[in-house]
Write a structure and sequence with these properties.
The chain has about 130 residues and is mainly alpha-helical. The chain has 5 helices and 2 strands. The protein has a two-stranded antiparallel ribbon.
Length: about 130
């Protein structure tokens, strides 16, 4: 980061810190309070940024954790509520939250992890 202006360096460090502070275990979350849930969309975008900064183990842990909520038929939940008794409550009646882009966002996150790490063993055996 030696060629990046100081203000930009501070902004990048702040962004990384914010993402790490708002994590809940392996769950990447876009914020606190009403955003204290994990979205695969937001987690995937944050994962890309964090991977660019060299944080790979945090992203592998996030993907591993998110994968535990994937249905047997391959469907990926859009939101995981880490504070709820049932972390997938929003996807059941009466809410029935369905976001059809989740599968692609999940695959995107795995591919970004692979692209930055070249960890073929993990990506082929776990996902």
């Amino acid at each position: 980061m030696q060629f990046v202006p100081l203000l930009m360096q501070r902004s990048i460090k702040s962004y990384i810190a914010y993402n790490l502070i708002t994590k809940d275990g392996a769950a990447i979350q876009p914020g606190v309070r009403s955003y204290e849930k994990s979205w695969i969309r937001d987690g995937g975008m944050a994962a890309t940024a964090l991977l660019k900064m060299g944080l790979t183990s945090e992203i592998r842990e996030f993907i591993d954790w998110y994968t535990t909520f994937q249905d047997k038929d391959g469907l990926v939940p859009p939101i995981i509520d880490t504070k709820a008794e049932d972390p997938l409550w929003e996807e059941k009646p009466p809410h029935n939250l369905i976001e059809y882009d989740c599968q692609g966002e999940y695959v995107y996150t795995i591919f970004e992890y692979y692209k930055f790490t070249r960890d073929q063993k993990t990506t082929s055996e776990r996902y």
